[in-house]
Amino acid sequence: MAKLRIIPLGGVGEIGKNMTAFEYEDDIVVLDCGSIFPRQDMLGIDLVIPDVTYLERNRERVRAYLITHGHEDHIGAVPYVFPKVPAPVYGTKLTCALIQGKLTEHNIHDIPLHVVKPRDTVRAGAFTVQFIKVSHSIAGAVAMAISCPAGTVIATGDFKIDYTPIDGEITDLNTLAAWGSRGVLALLADSTNVERPGYTMSEKKVGETFHNLFKDAKGRVIIAMFASNLHRIQQVVDICVEFGRKICFVGRSMVNVTRLAMQIGELKIPQDVYIEIGDLDCYEDDEIVVLTTGSQGEPMSGLTRMANSEHRKLQIREGDTVIISATPIPGNEIMVSRILDQLYRCGATVIYNRIADVHVSGHACQEELKLIHALVKPRYFVPVHGEYRMLQRHAQLAQAMGMPQERTIILELGQALELSEDEASITGPVPTGSVLVDGLGVGDVGNVVLRDRKHLSQDGLIIVVVGVSRETGQVTSGPELISRGFVYVRENEELISGARSVALSVLGRYDRIEQSDWTPIKNGIKDEMHAYLFGLIKRNPMILPIIMET
């Protein structure tokens, strides 16, 4: 019998960019299609998505995309990947609505979206897939049982076990246990919170905290959170109804997601409670609640612009209660600290996770992970959705529960795991990595361009412009030096004059400058000017010589 191949194209050894291919004979199904925020050293990059070269090479074999939920780290790459490798898409109601919004924004059509419900089963080539309800920090999250003749794989997606969820639908432990009793070939489980002991708090705990804060607030209440956390938004709406406050949404993603959620019935707001931002002046401060983006301190977010008095219609002022209902994503700590400081400078009362329970994670802690392992009882275990230390800790947790070490497999991006009941082996790798999105450019910025951007940001630029006569081959103008981000020319005339002399000495070695001489002249100017400048001030700017015929 043929083996099942599992190929992570993203989401292992990293947080985000989740994408996994499942391959059996001539059929491939793809689990999730996510993006990741760029690292701080990726200057000017908007988004990072998986390299799907392998899928492009096998596009005729791709039968379906299976999407666990609508967070960016699971759907962010959709508009960049789907046109290259089109296939039917399966997801829950909110997930498909968010994907449709992305496709429409990018003017992409003819991608079939199929809305499924928990416990629905679909067929895609040799694969049969059942969708299993799980709790997470967004509505419509599902795990999946992906079956083929080689066996069944349970992929948890992002999940936690919340016994008092806002929508009243707990993680479907019965279905997971039923699959466990039938026999599961492999478990792919979320490792994000594996370092945390115990259990993740229920979302209702946040609602209780909000209730107490609203009770004490004398002025406006402004809450920054992720727009996708509809269950938390619903709790805020319900508390607004109780305390007689009006709710307003600020920030592009907050407005778009909540409007979409109201249209499909995932968010219920009484008509007399919802107001537009232009109507805020019609109400007293103690009647207003504002939900906005900016929980990560993003420079262009609603909260940041309010705090810096850059928002056209809304500024933070003394008497406001500002709640940051999130924890900083790794790498965003500095930006969040800055916005907290600025909010305090504005005179607001600021509440965040270190002060009160205004945020709970959407990911399972150790005891919840143990429960899933105990119910599913997989033959093989593959930790996913985490940096390498998290995957390693999750493997150790599984082994502590009796999973043999040789059946606990940590994969690297692009490795292909081949599975059967009797054997597991790693082959490959297949082409994989990261594709950088910069504006409308996808993949046209690589390591060389990033290196140049980093060089420019750290050391600046000197442009050396020389005019050469086409007839005589003699220098007719220059060399003129233009400094950007290196030194202020008017205050460093002696330094610039010396650098100009270095360029002149290189040019002076040629009686007549022909086009064939341009490359060695440019290289000579670069090398000798680098040596001159570094010797004087220990700086290494990018030097760009330009020779023009006159």
Main sheet properties: 8 strands, mixed
What's the total number of strands?
Answer: 25
Structural class: alpha/beta
- Distance between the terminal alpha carbons, to the nearest Å? 74 Å
Share in helix: 25-40%
Shape: globular
Overall mean pLDDT stands at 88
Order of strands in the sheet with most strands: 7-6-5-3-2-1-19-20
Low-pLDDT windows of residues: none
Rg value: 28 Å
Q: Could you tell me the strand content as a percent range?
A: 15-25%
Number of alpha- plus pi-helical segments: 15
Topology:
Elements (H helix, E strand, L loop, with lengths): L3 E7 L8 E6 L2 E5 L15 E4 L2 H5 L4 E5 L5 H4 L2 H4 L7 E3 L1 H13 L7 E3 L5 E4 L2 E7 L8 E7 L2 E5 L17 H10 L1 E7 L12 H14 L4 E4 L5 H14 L2 E5 L1 H12 L24 E5 L9 H6 L13 E4 L8 H13 L3 E3 L14 H11 L1 E7 L3 H13 L15 E4 L4 E4 L6 E5 L2 E2 L4 H13 L1 E8 L6 E10 L8 H15 L10 H20 L4 E8 L1
Parallel strand pairs: 3-5, 5-6, 6-7, 11-12, 12-18, 13-15, 13-16, 14-15, 16-17, 23-25
Antiparallel strand pairs: 1-2, 1-19, 2-3, 4-21, 8-9, 9-10, 10-11, 19-20, 21-22, 23-24
Helix pairs in contact: 6-7, 14-15
Summarize the structure.
The chain is of the alpha/beta class and 550 residues long. The chain has 15 helices and 25 strands.
What does the model show?
Helix 6 runs parallel beside helix 7 and helix 14 runs antiparallel to helix 15. The radius of gyration is 28 Å and the shape is globular. The chain is built from 15 helices and 25 strands. The strands form five sheets. The chain has an eight-stranded mixed beta sheet with strand order 7-6-5-3-2-1-19-20. A six-stranded mixed beta sheet has the order 8-9-10-11-12-18. A five-stranded parallel beta sheet has the order 14-15-13-16-17, sandwiched between helices. It is of the alpha/beta class and 550 residues long. It starts with a strand and ends with a strand.
